[in-house]
Amino acid sequence: MSLLSGFPIRIDQIRSDMDNPGLSDYEVSLLQIAEKITNGTVIDISYTGTTVLIRPGSIIGGKFQHECSVSRGLGYYLEFLISLAPFSKNTVEATLFGVTNNSIDLSVDSIRTVTLPTLLHFGIDSNIELLVKKRGAEPLGGGEVRFVCPAVRQIKNMIFTDKGYIKRIRGIAYSTRVSPQTANRVVEAARSILNQFTPDIYLYTDAYKGKESGLSPGFGLTLVAESTTGALISTELNGAAGMPSEDLGKECAKQLLSEVCKGGCFDSYHQWLVLLMMTMSTEDVSKTNFGKLNKFTIQYLRDLKTFFNVTFKIEPNNDDDSINITGVGIGHINVNKNVV
User: Fold this and answer.
1) How confident is the model over 197-242, as pLDDT tens digits?
2) What's the total number of domains in the chain?
3) Whole-model pTM?
4) How far apart are CA 151 and CA 37, in angstroms?
5) Cβ atoms within 10 Å, residue 333
6) I want to staple 173 with a disulfide (CB 3.0 to 4.6 A). Which of 2, 186, 192, 271 is the partner?
7) SS3 assignment, position 15
8) How far apart are CA 35 and CA 28, in angstroms?
9) Is 93:148 a contact under the CB 8 Å cutoff?
10) Are 142 and 213 in a shared domain?
């Protein structure tokens, strides 16, 4: 938010009362990406790492590579890039190395199938892509992805309040350095539950071997439910040590059903991105529908108020337990964008 708004920020007492105080390695790695994608940004970290001062510069984008910390998944860094890339001077072409799938962050599959299509609602739809070149499960990683996002002059507002009805479910079961049958068992277990609700289900397996399989064994499942109005609801689960593949498939399917029951046009993982884009959009009304707000989204609303002085009208939906979100964008215009 500091980079987008142009306001400096100082963060004090970062884990000052913990055994390992200061910034974590993945946070330092994220700040390094911020330096690569901007020009003139000054980042000062104290000797103990418990204080950070950021003086934002201009977002220039461009082509770069980065070896990400394996403490977090590549989804952690991609979310940061996705929030900045549309407002850069040049097209962002980033090649990231690290963990593609873990139990903390969004996987590259969710980013590709749900996060990027979410940007379509705001008019960001040309030549944006995420290519998974290598898989890399935790803890050692070894994955590689290429992210491309063009700069836009201005993003449009969004009116999307009709979540519709679920019409189909798609999914990806991946496996690295384990038997390809593992992914097949995950798919069969998930289908045994999902088939009770809709016949239009297509789950495909993505088994990696050799150099493209990364440095650690792993498997997992990403599920996406699409509604009649284009709403995308997703969930994912990665296998833990000793966890049967059948249990993973069934648990992931149950999590998807639970996410759908929450209601809303967007799942809980993408509420923050929708709010950010509504804030940065044209000076017109944007309106959408969410399920239950999670703790991160509530804090994110406070941060949007701090950096952009933007507030949203939140009111319950009379038809179900969801809530309606209404706000007016700040009319941000990307003056840095190169004119062809």
Assistant:
1) 999 999 999 988 888 888 899 999 999 999 999 999 999 999 977 8
2) 3
3) 0.94
4) 12
5) 13
6) 186
7) coil
8) 11
9) yes
10) no
